[in-house]
Amino acid sequence: MSDSSLITHLRHIDVAMPNFAEQHRFYTELWGLTETAGDTGVSFLAAEGSPEQYVVRLREDVQKRTDLIAFGAASAADVDTLAARLAARGVRLVHEPRALDTPGGGYGVRFFDNEGRVVEVSAEVTARRHRRIEAREPVPVRLSHVLMNSPTPEATVAWYIEHLGFRLSDTMCLGERGEIMWFLRCNTFHHSFGIVRGPHAAFHHASFEMRGIDEFLRGTGRMRRLGIERLWGPGRHRAGDNSFSYFLDRAGNTVEYTTELEILDEDTWHPHLFDLRDPANADQWGTADEMDEFIAAKSHNDVDPGLFTAPPM
Questions:
Q1: CB neighbours (10 Å) of residue 50?
Q2: pLDDT tens digit string along 35-94?
Q3: Does pTM top 0.90 for this prediction?
Q4: CATH fold for domain 3-123
Q5: Which of 104, 94, 95 is nearest to 72 (CA)?
Q6: How many CA atoms lie within 13 A of 115 on its CB side?
Q7: CB neighbours (10 Å) of residue 269?
Q8: CATH 3.10.180.10: does it fit domain 142-298?
């Protein structure tokens, strides 16, 4: 069995922060997610169009941190195979494969990546009863992708390719400054995960797929009318060919509305290198402000204090 067959899709991103009530209100009342389970200081938030039990988990903590990134596998046997493979290669496990006590249950393993982020891979999670998102309804259909900052991006990209079987879709560069962003896939979507060159390991952004361009623009407009801090967009990227509008949540994490992310043909696709000195590579439409150091610095985020530290749940 090849490494590439073991990870099937992105499940959820779990984050912690001190201002839990503000974050909860942002993601439910403003961003458009639905709480499906919760307790004091924790909330599991689903996207209405997704069968995943939740796509974001919020947890109250005195520190702001990324708790974990979760991916799916096809079967419990694949989880076991992956865990054995990782252990044999010296990857540090947070816990061995076991039954999960999060919504939907399932069977999963947790481990640290090369920079100390916690990654979970699970299978046999009960699908959530979801619904079709209607025309003009500006709420997320699913979690599209998650990107992370890294001070050693080449090593981190290589780690995810070697150990988890991700494939490189495209890379962004900035002239003589070299490569700065790598888009990785685990299925036919252009990317479900990615790494950005940054000053420290931290959350870069999470992106949420909308039903279509009209719903994407309506969601973008709603955020702007509500006074949510806008970083960049609306526009349309070259790599992935997806639309984008970036905002800051209440903890200073970057979140994105997107739609129409490219679906690749695995048999014919070859990675491209796009130079951001050509503004059309950042925004094909030319409708977004030009990307600058101020915008980039906002998504560098704070230093993550949770590296090589397992979250409490």
A1: 23
A2: 999 999 999 999 999 999 999 999 999 999 999 999 999 999 999 999 999 999 999 999
A3: yes
A4: 2,3-Dihydroxybiphenyl 1,2-Dioxygenase; domain 1 (3.10.180)
A5: 104
A6: 25
A7: 16
A8: yes
